[in-house]
Structure formats: C-alpha cells, structure tokens
Design brief:
The structure is a single chain. The protein has about 190 residues and is mainly alpha-helical. The chain folds into two domains: about 60 residues, Homeodomain-like (Arc Repressor Mutant, subunit A, Orthogonal Bundle), CATH 1.10.10.60; about 120 residues, Tetracycline Repressor, domain 2 (Orthogonal Bundle), CATH 1.10.357.10. Helices cover about 75% and strands about 0% of the residues. The longest helix is centred in the C-terminal third of the chain and has 24 residues.
Length: about 190
C-alpha cells in the first residue's frame, strides 16, 4: 500500500466527492481515479478494497467537518445563547461542505444494506458523539448526554432538509435552531 499521506488525503477527498455525486453504486476505484485525474489503478494502490475506501471517506469527513479552534472558542458563554451559537456554526459548517455532508448521508443509507459499512459508520458516529458530549461538558453548556443526542437527531434532520428540499424555506435556520434550543434544553 502506498504511503504518500498527501496523495492519500487527496484521493480520500475525491472519494467523498464521488460518493456525494454518484452515490454508493458509483463509488469505485476507477471513478475516484477519474475524479482525481490520476492514472487508473492509483486509488487501489492506496485503498485496496471498498472497506478501505469507506474508512478513508470517514476519516476525510471527520477532518473536513471538525470544528475549528476559533469556532469552539467562539461559544463565549455557557448558557442557551452559547449553545445556539455553536449549533448555528455546526449547521453552517455542515451545509457549506455539501459533499462531505451528502457523502455522510449516503453512507448512512449504504449502512442499511452493507454490514461492513454499518459497523464502520457506527463506530465513527458513536466516537463522534462521545467527543461531542465531552466538549459539551467541558464548555459548561446546559443539558446532558441525552440532550446532545436529541440535538444530533434534530440537526441531522435539519441538515438533510437544508441540503435537499427545505420544507419551510421562509424560516431562517438560526430561527429554527433557537426554537430547538428553547424546546430541547432544560432551564438552568
């Protein structure tokens, strides 16, 4: 297996784009080679099988959708307003990297058909949830693990809505998030 980490990352990013654009059926070594404009067979040198491609996609999505230090530092306050600010930044991040967000939805759908994808995605998602809960506690944000889980459910639906066909395009995302925060978080 090839060791060029920069090339590996580039191919992983192209795999994300192929998955977002073509769906799981279109995700092949050749499709990634074409998207990356590299010689046929290059992708298979880095990712010998589909499981390795999926692992690379999850790694790249995690990197691309991770919060920046300034975003985490920008919470400013520990109450509902700080939580709403962070949720707005999260939704902005997810909707601005459409390929990564759509690829993640594609993987969720593929997980219903392929146990290997299910297992890889479940591990990745649950590790991410644990990190989110730890961050939530570290920042002193209101609520507990159950509230973070509820926000994951709500934000996942909101992102899907924003990336596809918004059911209420007249309502600002920040307004929706403010309503979610008011409805889901306990009073302090």
């Amino acid at each position: 297996m090839a060791k060029n980490d920069a090339r590996r990352g580039e191919l992983g990013d192209h795999a994300v784009a192929v998955l977002a654009r073509e769906g799981a059926r279109g995700l092949t070594h050749r499709a990634i080679d074409r998207a990356a404009e590299v010689p046929t067979g290059t992708t298979s040198n880095y990712f010998p099988d589909r499981e390795a491609i999926i692992a690379a996609i999850l790694e790249r999505i995690g990197i691309r959708l991770a919060p920046s230090n300034s975003e985490e530092a920008g919470i400013g306050e520990a109450g509902r307003a700080g939580f709403a600010s962070y949720m707005n930044a999260l939704v902005g991040r997810l909707t601005s990297d459409r390929d990564a967000a759509i690829a993640l939805f594609e993987l969720r759908l593929e997980a219903t058909r392929r146990p290997a994808v299910h297992d890889a995605l479940a591990h990745w998602a649950r590790s991410g949830l644990d990190a989110d809960v730890a961050f939530h506690r570290q920042q002193g944000l209101p609520g507990d693990r159950e509230h973070v889980v509820l926000f994951h459910y709500a934000i996942t639906g909101l992102i899907l809505d924003q990336l596809t066909v918004p059911i209420d395009p007249a309502t600002e995302v920040s307004t929706t998030i403010a309503r979610l925060v008011d409805g889901l978080l306990p009073e302090r």
